[in-house]
Amino acid sequence: MAEESERTTVLTVNEKKVLLALDSERGRAGDPSALAAETGLNEDAAMQAAFMLAQKGLCAIHEKKSFHYRLTVEGTEYAETGLPERHGLALLPLTLREFKQSFENEKEANIATNWLLRKGWARFDDKDGEKVVTPTGNTSWGSPGYNIDEELLRVAREEGEITEDVLLNRIKESIPDLDDRSLHCFLDDLVKKRNLLTHSATIERTIAITGSGHELVARGISIEEELAQLTPELLRTGAWRGRTFKTYDVNLPSKEEFPAKIHPYQRILDMMRRIFTEMGFTEIKGDLIQSAFWNFDALFVPQDHPAREMQDTFYLGAKQPLDVDERIIAKVKEMHEHGGSLNSAGWGGAWKKELSEELLLRTHTTAVTLWYLASHPEPPVKVFSIDRVYRRETIDPTHLPEFYQLEGIVMDKGVSFRNLLGCLATFYHKMGFPSIRFRPGYFPYTEPSVEVEVYMPEHGWLELGGAGVFREEVTNPIGVQYPVLAWGLGIERLAMLSLGLTDIRDLYRSDIDWLRKTKITQGLHI
Ligand code: FA5
Question: For atom 16 of ligand 1, which residue has the closest CA?
Fold first, then answer.
């Protein structure tokens, strides 16, 4: 406490001058110009010192905001010659075409038409297939028998610059029973909608010493010039000895700085990469445009599967002959039609090569890992891919049509379903999700299949990805003889949870405030 009171009563020379000036006012509140005159400081410096004193509880600053109104150039013209709708009213009735032609320009004609209708001074009638502007007989606006906007313009014209209080009082004198709220609405219309008045705000400040300020002055304050900087000259001559140096209050709030940093989502992608790399995986990349063969057929997805339909998949409307070993194509065909040489029934029916030649935007990165596996059929294979996929989705808080997946496979002698679960659990734990669970799932290309869910206290259990062991119907045609553990995880949903967002779209909104305030460690459990 003792330290605190010492800290708060350390005053700069300017603060001492202002405090003494306030004290000499004997409790009367001063304004900035009086303070400046009394202290010999300029107004800004005097007020800066007053603000510092106020922070220390030695003076109190009272602020009163007032608005001033003035006519704009357009407002001055209308205040002198009358509003366009007033001129227009005198011409009625006319057809809309004639009415518009009677104005000098289109802008004025539109203003007159809109405000005549809005004020209820005119209406549109249909006559012989033409629109006619007809007067309604009403010529008031805001209060029966009066026109408040025209009154406001008249007073503003008479007064030049006018404070809000004076302006409103003048109107109330001539139009009784008008409440402040509706008057403000008319003022707002003239400022914001019609741009006929402008307003500016001024803040009047009064400053008064507090009891603690008095007490401090009573204990005695001496004004001694303080040195703000230690110069070589002061050091050389030794003149610094015995002088008082300006103190710095390191506790004062300072302007927040937001240094450049990597996008939070990119940091999460980088972290995922690092985790899989540390677990001994190699990253692979594949083509964004895939044939239906790699995206679906080689994965044993039947040719009539709903996910292959136009409403789920972005087809490019083009085909390309498959750049795949004919033996693999033949085996995939046999696998679909009757299960090939395996103890499998396949899907039955005729498998059509032309359907597998369709080009599309990959709907999952499983197309990439499978394509890689086909060219690396010998064990061991341990690869992952972090890349974009595309689906015809309606955008909502958990769905995007373009999103990232984290795909991975492990192929080796003797690897098992338990290794798959362990691998995924390790990844999610490293990402900072201690509670995960696996639920039985279904994918045409894996058996057994699971869905991975993580637990978030605010959301409960959330499904983040799919996984399983590739079926022999998938591995056999590409010549792979050992078990393949595979998974495909949604990244945006995981990043969204890590970053505390509730809407997936926020990851891509680039809200500068959110980007600035997100800590560089947020979402990273390191
Ligand atoms: C697949 O894409 C499978 N290929 C995963 C897989 C790979 C299973 C290997 C077995 C073996 P699914 O369609 O469920 O599965 O998508 C996986 C994850 O991607 C989902 O759990 C979800 O987190 C995310 N995801 C799916 N659709 C969207 C979307 N429209 N927007 C954002 N994330 C999505």
Answer: 465
Mean pLDDT score, 438-465:
90
Q: How many CA atoms lie within 13 A of 342 on its CB side?
A: 21
The residue whose two tokens read 């509140």 is: 29
pTM for this predicted structure: 0.61
| Check whether domain 70-165 has CATH 3.40.50, yes or no | no
Q: Is the CB of 467 under 6 A from ligand 1?
A: yes
Domain positions in the chain: 70-165, 267-517
Tens digit of each residue's pLDDT (9 = 90 or more) over 252-286: 788 888 888 999 999 999 999 999 999 999 999 99
82 CB-near residues (< 8 Å, 6+ apart): none
Residue with tokens 């969204």: 496
410 lines ligand 1 (CB under 6 A): no
- The DSSP output letter for 199 is E
The residues near 366 (Cβ < 8 Å, ≥ 6 apart) are 299, 407, 445, 486, 488
State in Å: Cα 317 to ligand 1 middle: 24
**Ligand 1 site, residue 87, Cβ cutoff 6 A:** no
